[in-house]
Amino acid sequence: MTEPFQSKNTPPLWWMIKVAATLLAVARPFWVIAAGGSLWPLPSFVPLFICQVLVLTGAGIHLWHYRLLKTGNASLALPDHLVTKGGLFPWVRHPMYLGDLILIIGFSGILPDVEGLAILLAGVVGLACQAQVEDAELNERFPNAFPPWRTRTRRLIPWVW
């Protein structure tokens, strides 16, 4: 599997969108507070603590699976073996991206407005593109192990997609 920067001097557009959406989702509440604004500019049916739980859950899922992937692999860019067991891997092929998605949903819910929705949609598009590209790379790198795993699992959201 290649790094986003390995084949070109600039990363792919989908990768830049994903990174920008994640950074904006995380930084936006802090900007609003620093400017003296309120975290709840619009009425919301989602309590703040639910958004906080989503942020912590998403970050936890991401870090947990990063550790699982690093165990036994010298590099995440060029894995030595396909990780299909442990954590959420029996149900989803990209649990780190699932964690990112949950984190972005949580941060977007903290400021439930048009900008938050746009950031969320950009993040989903970027994560979906990255997962699709990595599926193709994993299929090429592990032609015997990846196809059966792909048929048993979902790409990003367990039992759904």
UniProtKB/TrEMBL annotation:
> What UniProt keywords apply to this chain's record, in alphabetical order?
Membrane, Transmembrane, Transmembrane helix
Give the chief site where it resides: membrane
Q: Which residues cross the membrane?
A: 12-33, 45-64
Database matches in InterPro entries: ICMT_MeTrfase, Metal_cation-efflux_comp
Pfam families, A to Z: ICMT (PF04140)
> Topology in the membrane?
Multi-pass membrane protein
Superkingdom of this protein's organism: Bacteria
Which residue positions does the secretion signal occupy?
Answer: none
Q: Where in the cell is it found?
A: Membrane
PANTHER family from the UniProt entry = BLL3993 PROTEIN
What name is this protein filed under?
Isoprenylcysteine carboxyl methyltransferase
**Species in which this protein is naturally found:** Desulfoluna limicola
